[in-house]
Each structure stands twice: as C-alpha cells, then as structure tokens.
Design a protein that fits this description.
This protein is mainly α. The protein has helices at residues 10-20, 24-37, 57-65, 72-85, 94-127, 156-161, 169-175; strands at 43-44, 47-50, 53-56, 131-135, 149-153. The radius of gyration is 20 Å and the shape is elongated.
C-alpha cells in the first residue's frame, strides 16, 4: 500500500501527495509540521514538548492547524447546531450556557481536527513520505498497556527536501543503546 517515492525536492513531495491525496496542500502542511516536531532522525512523537507542558503529537498537530478552521460563517453555523443539540441541557443562565456551548463547540472542532490530521497522515503514509507506528503497543514505555500514541517517522530524503538538518549515520547510531552496552561502564 505504501509507495516507494523518489524525492528530488519540494516539487517531488508535492507530486507524490497530489497522486496519493485528495487534499495535497493540507497534507503538505501536516508533513511540514511533523518535520518541525521531529528530531534529527526524523522521529516525532508520541509527545511534543512545546511551551509549558508536553502534548500528544496528534493533539499538537491539531492545535497548530486550528487557525485554518476559524472561519466565522462555519463556526457560527457549528455554534447554532451545538446550541440546538444542547437545548435540553441549558440552564437559562446566559453565562453558564455560553460557557457550556463554547466548550461543546471546542470539543467538536478538536474532534474534527483530529480526524483531518489522521486522514492527512494516512495520505502521507500512502505516498511513502512518512511511516507511523504506535508507542506503547509493542515496546516498553511508560504507557504500555494504556492507549497507544502515534509516532511518525519522516525519511531522511524527505527531511532534506523540506530543508531540515538530518542526523548522520554515526550520530544516530550513538543515540541508540544496544543490549550489549547495557552493563558497559
């Protein structure tokens, strides 16, 4: 299902996305954000440490893309639908009701944003520009047994095409512990 893509530059990335995605510009934006969050080996996630507290990668991508969805007409229509659906739960107190509606609208926007990010990542995987796996599923880490969290890996050729510095083989090899080195002093 994943394509082998030869990347010669940003145009090559866009051509691969145009062939694999219905929304290539959005997928390209998501790819650039993943590359921004990635380390020098191209690995991003499961947590992104930005600002005061780390966030899950999908949530961070969604919040970075929220300004794209702040169209006043669409947001007003969503607010009207949410208000109608919450009609039986509203108290009549304008301040309390406005806070409840705002919270429900924000939850709806984030849910739609997560779905859009997930769809764009699937397009990137299909185009061969990203691989994904889930931390906590088959490896030991602090969340083993809990929910799995996405980790996206951008290949070095794609990182270079996006203008990001890529780790050399020796630097990447130094950061990986091997079992034989476990008791080395």
């Amino acid at each position: 299902m994943q394509r082998q893509t030869h990347i010669s530059g940003l145009g090559g990335i866009y051509a691969a996305l145009a062939a694999a995605s219905n929304r290539p510009r959005y997928a390209l934006l998501v790819l650039q954000l993943v590359a921004e969050a990635a380390d020098m080996r191209g690995r991003a996630g499961p947590l992104v440490g930005r600002g005061d507290a780390p966030m899950l990668l999908r949530d961070w991508l969604c919040t970075q893309l929220l300004p794209l969805s702040k169209q006043s007409v669409r947001r007003a229509a969503l607010r009207a639908r949410v208000t109608t659906s919450l009609q039986d739960q509203l108290t009549g107190n304008p301040e309390v009701d406005a806070a409840r509606v705002d919270q429900a609208v924000e939850e709806q926007v984030l849910a739609v944003g997560r779905a859009n990010v997930s769809r764009a990542i699937s397009d990137l995987v299909r185009a061969g520009l990203v691989t994904r796996h889930y931390a906590g599923y088959a490896t030991n880490h602090e969340n083993r047994g809990g929910g799995r969290h996405a980790v996206y890996v951008v290949p070095p050729a794609v990182l270079r095409a996006l203008g990001k510095t890529v780790a050399t083989q020796s630097v990447a090899a130094l950061s990986v512990r091997r079992q034989g080195e476990l008791f080395a002093a």
